[in-house]
Design a protein that fits this description.
Helix content is 39%, strand content 16%. It has 292 residues and is α/β, with parallel strands linked by helices. It has a six-stranded parallel sheet with strand order 1-11-8-7-5-6. The radius of gyration is 19 Å and the shape is globular. The model has no long low-confidence stretch (mean pLDDT 95).
Length: 292
Amino acid sequence: MELIDGKKISKEIRQEIAAEVAQMIAAGQKRPHLVAVLVGHDGGSETYVANKIKACEECGFKSSLRRFETDITEAELLNVVAELNNDPDVDGFIVQLPLPKHISEEKVTEAIDPRKDVDGFHPQNVGRMTIGAPAFISATPQGIVDLIRRYNIPTAGKHAVVIGRSNIVGRPMSILLSQKGIDCTVTVCHSRTPNMKDICRQADIIVAAIGKPGFVTADMVKPGAVIIDVGTTRVTDPTAERGWRLKGDVDFANVAPLCSYITPVPGGVGPMTIVSLMKNTLLAGKKAIYKD
């Protein structure tokens, strides 16, 4: 069993990005600029945005944070999006989710200029990704693909089972795994899937993205399988310094001995999500996806 070290790979990619940005600056080109829009004071969102800003610094990007209170109206937030769309200095921006209940996440996402949609959530980018055209790909699925490639994990003809069908992870992940160059045969499982254990036992690769701690157990995994654990649920733990710890969707202690490769939580997929956002920002700065 080999641990897939997301921290190590994400550091390597950040260094590669920083070297490319240094070349851009030396050639007189503009430094890529990422803006994060944060509404409210959700603890998870605060941490995530802070990590993104730190990653921007390491990559040599310019970063900005636009903060708003939870009482901002939907119309006001849409005006902020329009302003960022029209700002030539901004290469890419994200509106951190979740948003307050009175604001439509769908409306806000669709208002973002696809050329600046470095989260890869706009329907235009999702559609382009689906047909294999150049696109900003949502960060977590792209990070998983990078982990698989950098560990030279065989994928062609393998049976991959994706547990979860969210628009952010499960659906795009299933599409990416089936595309040419990865060439998996993909099954998507979800809450209405019967005989899920039997299906998972057939899998060469399992991507668990269902948000239920310890959901994937040893009796669901065949020996030698590759396990990618996307879960990051905060579970109360009085022995932990913060009173909680992150737990993945996989029963790591009992599943790991069966695997050829497995991602830990934390330190597996998580760091790759942020570095994938950095990759998209670099592409936005270089105008590499949309040429107009």
